[in-house]
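cron nightly-structures :: item 1 of 1
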Amino acid sequence: MGIALAYCLAASLLSIINKWAIMKFPFPGLLTALQYFVSAFGVYVLGSLGLLKHDKLDSKIMLKFLPAAVCFYISIFTNSELLLHANVDTFIVFRSAVPLFVAFGEAVYLKQPWPACKTWLSLGVIFTGALLYVLMDQGFSLDAYTWALAYLGSMSIDFVYIKHIVMTIGLNTWGLVLYNNLEALLLFPLELLVMGEGLQLLKETSKQSINWYSFNVWLPVALSCAFGLAISFFGFSCRRNISATGFTVLGVVNKLLTVAINLFVWEHHASLVGTLGLLMCIGGGVLYQQSSSKPKSLVPTSEDIDVEQQPLLQKPNDA
């Protein structure tokens, strides 16, 4: 339970911190690359010092893990682009709609039982709240909603496929963090070519529109990197113990704190009716109940970590 709460806290704050970082450092690709570097390098260094145990790097495992890293990279990239083009509320609403698609993908791809009627009802409440928000969004932007739809699709695939990887690849939690972030970092040069962010970075540097030595610029960037490492560890720990849909809904519920902070900190947030739709999304997450079947057995990890053997959340069969 403690790791689940830690994940909720990290995820809630990371959405706000990432928005803050993007406002001060408007290069979403470079920001995510820095997050990957800090996470991968941090795990490697701490492992070398004997402060944690992670699986050794292996070319065969890296190749097997590559599709998951690509899914993760695309989902994080679309996340950053969405925060660049839209407010935090829009991000939360589309994040709240992800469980509806993950539930379908989990049943079809992972061969898990279809959710119970109460589960579909709660997911329907989430979708209705998201629809209400979109209809009331006076700041509608085609660019923002294009990125929002891309984020919705990539996150849905990411949650289902990475759950499959966690169940089958046999890495411990820190090993998953290391492989995931290292391989995502190696994909960064491709993004520079495709999105043209490298040229934008050179242009902004020549114009000196950003003070690269400013504490106000690097503070949110540093915090986003630190929270990126935290959410990587707690996220993979949670994925081991609950279904893909359950993990997705957990990510929706934790956004209640994000909404509260957003309303008090930023000027760019939804109207009263839009906020009502937002709260409906979160309320639907609270109503969510996992299907009663027990998840498939996991492949034993190469390193047994005590924290991984603790139940994070009460499983349905234990109720």
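cron nightly-structures :: done
Confidence is low (pLDDT under 50) at residues 289-298, 302-319.
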